[in-house]
Design goal:
There is one protein chain. It contains seven helices and eleven strands. By secondary structure, it is an alpha/beta fold. It folds into two domains: about 5-170 and about 250-255, Flavodoxin domain (Rossmann fold); about 185-230, Alpha-Beta Plaits, CATH 3.30.70.20. The strands form three sheets. Strands 1, 2, 4, 5, 7, 8 and 11 form a seven-stranded mixed beta sheet that branches. It has a two-stranded parallel ribbon with strand order 3-6. Strands 9-10 form a two-stranded antiparallel sheet. Strand 7, helix 3 and strand 8 (about 110-120) form a beta-alpha-beta unit. Helix 1 packs across helix 4 (about 140-155). The structure holds flavin mononucleotide (FMN). The site of flavin mononucleotide (FMN) has 24 residues, from helix 1, strand 4 and strand 7.
Length: about 260
């Protein structure tokens, strides 16, 4: 019996898409999910997983680390079976995000049989005029994720269960920078409320404005807005996005 638990946070859906492709390749008899994205679904206590279940620890990269709400939740998963660590980043770099996930899984009792860094459309794409890793993960990324799932099952079946450490540095780099600014809401806003529904940190008030003290700049509001009314025009963010849009295309990196 192959059981798989997908544990992730995914504000704009890239991480979710990658882990679902991996799950397809893994071919589990039973797949369960802990989707921590919604603020209504945050575990307050530790979650214990049985040893027959392989856990996928997954989250997006924010400033070279795993996004903090994602990390807080993933740290709650404890067990003594196998784990796979996945980070998804916006085509710049994943820095110390994957090793942070790996260390968490090890600290929580798991045996890490594989790690992968995949690429997703950059969150800034949804709140600026720049396209950064547009439409990633693409078909090729998803084939790689699916094959990765297949290779990991083979490894487990062969009894090859050594811990595989990914790239990354300890101590980890410092997380969020001063770039954090909440998107503005333009007058063209039609007050449909979709942004309120998808915000993973309840940062949007009933006037459809983002609270800068809560906003994590994840771009979820911009992605669902039917009239592109959520925008960031702060110069440092525009300059950063412009630069990011010029980087060469990265490919998924696997550690297995
Ligand atoms: C505040 C912030 C910081 C980010 N930092 C990085 C980074 O350091 N490197 C990178 O390549 N992508 C970075 N990204 C892009 C996200 O990792 C990327 O958009 C990812 O696909 C989001 O995953 P999701 O769709 O599952 O939420 C950042 C995004 C945000 C909002």
């Amino acid at each position: 019996m192959k059981k798989l638990l997908l544990a992730y946070f995914s504000a704009t859906g890239a991480t979710k898409t990658v882990v679902e492709a991996l799950a397809k390749g893994f071919g589990a008899n039973e797949i369960s999910k802990l989707d921590f994205t919604s603020p209504d679904f945050r575990a307050q206590e530790d979650i214990l997983v049985d040893e027959d279940t392989t856990v996928v620890f997954a989250g997006p990269v924010f400033a070279g680390r795993i996004q903090t709400d994602a990390m807080d939740q993933l740290k709650r998963i404890k067990g003594n079976g196998n784990a796979i660590c996945i980070c998804v980043y916006g085509n710049r770099d994943f820095d110390d995000a994957l090793i942070e996930l790996y260390d968490t899984a090890i600290d929580n009792g798991f045996n890490v049989v594989g790690n992968g860094a995949f690429i997703g459309e950059h969150s800034f794409t949804h709140i600026t005029d720049f396209n950064i890793a547009k439409n990633r993960p693409d078909a090729n990324d998803l084939t790689i994720a699916e094959n990765f799932g297949r290779d990991i099952v083979k490894k487990i079946v062969d009894g090859n269960l050594s811990n595989i450490e990914p790239k990354g540095n300890r101590p980890y780099k410092d997380g969020m920078s001063s770039l954090l600014v909440a998107p503005d809401t333009l007058d063209t806003c039609i007050k449909c409320g979709k942004c309120i529904t998808v915000c993973p940190v309840n940062a949007i008030n009933t006037e459809f404005k983002c609270n800068p003290d809560l906003c994590i700049l994840c771009g979820a509001c911009g992605k669902v807005c039917p009239v592109n009314a959520k925008v960031c025009t702060v110069e440092p963010l525009i300059q950063k996005s412009k630069l990011l849009s010029t980087l060469e295309k990265r490919v998924p990196k696997l550690f297995i």
